TrEMBL record:
Keywords: Lyase, Membrane, Transmembrane, Transmembrane helix. This is Membrane-bound lytic murein transglycosylase B. The gene is mltB. Its EC number is 4.2.2.-. It comes from BD1-7 clade bacterium. The chain crosses the membrane at residues 27-46.
Length: 353
């Protein structure tokens, strides 16, 4: 080192310059602490599900039940990581409870409608083919994909293995359910020859365009294009057909009514149905004084539904097809959003360009 450099070196690190010394010690300590924390957190993540007796028990029982190699099952499970963000997401209370008006504004907004029309036009031949094969109205197929993932745009960024491990082993309120879905997930990955550690979905383990949980995947997902895998993540053909199959299996009735509004009246609260499943006839409602559209047959079975908006209650009659939508998602708000989005998309697809 030259003499010209020595004074600078001394001024920066000489013990007599205590303020500079403490500053550099502080910086070094902070950097080292951050590095140490990163190392520890990485190690903890790697050890999340190793040597846990409940995980070992699951692997043992799964292997016995399904005639699989216990060691291989355990190796897979040990690759799962506990994600605090998943626990936060499933435990977080809603910031506010949306009424139907708020819910409608989210799912019937112009961009979702525009995207739906574009998606339908892009895949029109395929959607018509699937609709005919499964006897499910094309508009409800497209609407479900729109409500779930904006037509495949937002399918989730969590590893499904992490989601199901985290909720199955570290979320006691629903651990039994998510362990059951973990079991289904391992089976579907094996059956479809998919790498379980690569598959992604929502924080709750829902997957693909239609957000199928693993149990629903195994029950309803289909390989429409015949390539030997039901790819609901990246293959629109399989995703569209899988939703249609779900609705067919739940007895969707092609061309039949879904829901009809009841306008300009106030209905007694005790007449409102407790379930979206049709529980009375149109004739029963007429006898009770409800003004029902004249075109509806007295024998038709319906549920009487009330939806809260900022301007008061909206009343609707729900038919069997409305109930089928609630088999996909139990929320009546979800079902009404899917129905109304479907109607809007159908109307726009029939407009002559």
């Amino acid at each position: 080192m030259s003499n010209n450099q020595a004074p600078e070196y001394q001024s920066r690190f000489d013990c007599r310059n205590t303020s500079n010394l403490f500053h550099h010690l502080h910086v070094f300590t902070a950097v080292f602490s951050a590095f140490l924390a990163l190392c520890l957190s990485t190690n903890v993540a790697a050890e999340d599900y190793k040597n846990r007796e409940d995980v070992k028990t699951f692997a043992r029982e799964f292997a016995k039940e399904h005639n699989k190699n216990e060691a291989e099952v355990l190796i897979l499970l040990e690759q799962g990581s506990r994600k605090q963000s998943i626990l936060d997401a499933i435990s977080r209370p809603a910031e506010r409870v949306l009424n139907w008006g708020g819910y409608r504004n989210i799912f019937l907004e112009p961009n979702r409608i525009k995207q739906g029309v574009a998606f339908w036009k892009e895949h029109e031949t395929l959607i018509n083919e699937v609709s005919k094969k499964y006897e499910v109205s094309p508009e409800i197929i497209v609407a479900i994909l729109g409500v779930e993932t904006r037509y495949g745009r937002l399918t989730g960024g969590y590893r499904v293995l992490d989601a199901l491990m985290t909720l199955g082993f570290d979320y006691p309120p629903r651990a039994k359910f998510f362990r059951g879905q973990l079991e289904q997930f391992i089976l579907l990955a094996d059956e479809q020859n998919l790498k379980a550690t690569d598959l992604k979905g929502s924080y709750a383990g829902a997957m693909g365009y239609g957000q199928f949980i693993p149990g629903s995947y195994r029950a309803y997902a289909v390989d429409h294009d015949g390539d030997n895998v039901a790819d609901i993540w990246g293959n629109p053909a399989d995703a569209i057909a899988s939703v249609a199959n779900y609705f067919k299996r739940h007895r969707w009735q092609y061309g039949e009514l879904v829901a009809v509004p009841l306008l300009n009246q106030t209905i007694a609260p005790d007449l409102i149905s407790k379930s979206p499943k049709p529980d009375r006839s149109v004739g029963d409602l007429r006898e009770a004084g409800v003004a029902v559209p004249a075109a509806l047959d007295n024998a038709a079975r319906v549920s009487l539904l009330a939806f809260e908006t900022d301007d008061g209650l909206e009343y609707w009659l729900g038919f069997d097809n409305f109930y089928v939508i609630t088999r996909y998602n139990h929320s009546r708000l979800y079902a009404m959003a899917a129905h109304q989005l479907a109607e809007i998309l159908r109307a726009q697809m029939t407009v002559k360009e």
